[in-house]
Amino acid sequence: MKSNKLVIEYEYDFKVFAITSSSKEFKLAWAFNELLHVKLAKQADIEFQFLKGSRFLISNFLFESEYSSFRLLKNKAVEFENVSKPFLLPELKHFDYFLRLEGEFSDEYLIQIELIIRDLNSVQHVELLELSTINSKENLLF
After folding, report:
1. How many domains is the chain partitioned into structurally?
2. pLDDT tens, 65-75?
């Protein structure tokens, strides 16, 4: 019997900065609010549920305007059950946070954001991710 396979391709119409920082998430969100002129506010944790009863919660802060949104996500789960790798993006577990930007942003604006984040004393490293190289990028869709 011939079987068919459903292939779903998602559109990743957002940009993601990976950030290494020892700061607490609320302090990092406050710094971004000041420097990027946004108002990131704590939201309910995002819950991921998988087959076989495994799940984890990811902390997040959100700022939305009419044309764009900024979301600061903690990479390591704040709570988890039956998960061997409690990270939003397990292959990038060396990063502490991700800043996801949705909207139309010029390359110059993205470079400016990266430079602003890099200048923060509490940030050790920042880079704009190439989403096509990330296996678990579906975890960023919600």
Report:
1. 1
2. 999 999 999 99
The rounded distance, in Å, linking the Cα atoms of 58 and 123 is: 20
Residue 80's domain comprises 14-140
- Cα separation, 88 vs 34, in Å, equals 26
Q: Distance between CA 15 and CA 130 in Å, rounded?
A: 8
Return the biggest CA–CA distance within the chain. Answer: 61
Is 55 or 11 the better-scoring residue by pLDDT?
55
pLDDT per position as a tens digit, 4-28: 776 666 676 789 999 999 999 999 9
Q: Are 14 and 137 in contact (CB under 8 A)?
A: no
Q: Are 104 and 67 in contact (CB under 8 A)?
A: yes
> Does residue 5 lie in a domain region?
no
Query: Nearest 5°: CA angle at 73, between 70 and 77?
Result: 165
3 in a structural domain: no
Residues 6+ apart with CB under 8 A from 89: 75, 95, 98, 134, 136, 137, 139, 140
What token pair was written down for 113? 């954001």
Here the tokens at position 28 are: 């990092």
Query: Which tokens go with 134?
Result: 């990330």
